[in-house]
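Quick start: what a row looks like.
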Amino acid sequence: MEAYQRNNRILYVDDEGALLSAFTALLRKEPVEITTLQDSTKIEQILTEKGPFAAVFSDQRMPGLDGVGVLEAVAKAHPASIRVMITGFADHNDTLRAINIGGITSYIAKPWDDGHLKALVRESVHRYNLAGENTYLLGALKLANDSLKEALDGTVTGTVRLLGDMVQTLNPDAGMRATRVRQLGRALLEMMPEVEEQERREITLALDLAFLGIAALPPWIQVSLNKQGFSSLERFPVARTHHLIASGLVKEIPGFENVARILRLLGKNYDGSGDPTDEFAAGEKLPLGSRMLHILVELERKTTEKFRGREMLEWMLRQPAMFDTALINRMLKRPEGQAGEASTSDVGIDGLKPGMVLLEDVMNSENQCLMRAGTAVTVMSINILKQWHARDPLPAKIRVRVQR
């Protein structure tokens, strides 16, 4: 599947040539491609020849086809295009017709304010491409999901695991964090035998997919995260809510509605504050998986060499508005050594298992680094190393950390 192609094309329709020229001149330094049309009756022709446009701006009072007619034609041909009415006549009826028939999103009066118009052009292009990228990502996920289902003989669980492992390939730092959250979450689930099997399965799948949204972030953010580390995530608003992206992707998988909701609400505090703001849920109304992940993600994010996990949990226990303290108490009562100690071992390629952590770089015969030290081993990474090993033998032993 080809990469998403950004659309920066703008169309302005007006019967006054001077205004068409002024519009073009105003936006000459903007990163957009301007097309103008003076004969509104040729709207369908230009949409066919040069469309779709990210945004279409149209005058209302014109001979031939008025602005409502122009924008109605745009709505029928390319419904995703952002449509804006520009007119010197503040006619209430025209405005209502434009909203109801042409589906306009904005209305500008003549003479326009240059700064306002330029800002609206930028916003329109951004909105169009944001929606387009989301549609593209959903389509890409569907193709990947279909392909993985065939490769794994229809095993949905296996498909989900590989989707989660994609994060490791794109961003090793995020992959390590995802692995630690997954291990902690499964250890916590083992302490909760009362959780029914279906809910347990949904929580396990959510643990596997909690960081999937990282894989769907734009490439320029991926580059920054890889260069500056996962802590730079806070600099990018869309990246901070990557769990909402993950939820949007996962909900397209049949039967994953509850998994998607767990991911969607994992940023919620126990008192109901936090993202997403368009849905209120608090306390026991929040899914158990969301409450668990809210604790685990924050625990992993804030734990440092100086501020250990148990100290972090003790701090969380004093924040009842943010966290489910009953779950934290369960975690604190875990016997020492359970699901926490690790040992070092030297294993061959065939001895690698998911969950191990590489303690040294894996190099090929040409001294190229295939996987860096610190990478959490996944099913996908094991398969990649085995494929390399079949063509170009790798070291007989690889040092790893094994979690017990």
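That is the whole record. DSSP finds 17 helices and ten strands in the chain. The beta strands are 9-13, 33-37, 55-59, 82-87, 106-109, 342-347, 357-358, 362-363, 369-371, 398-403.
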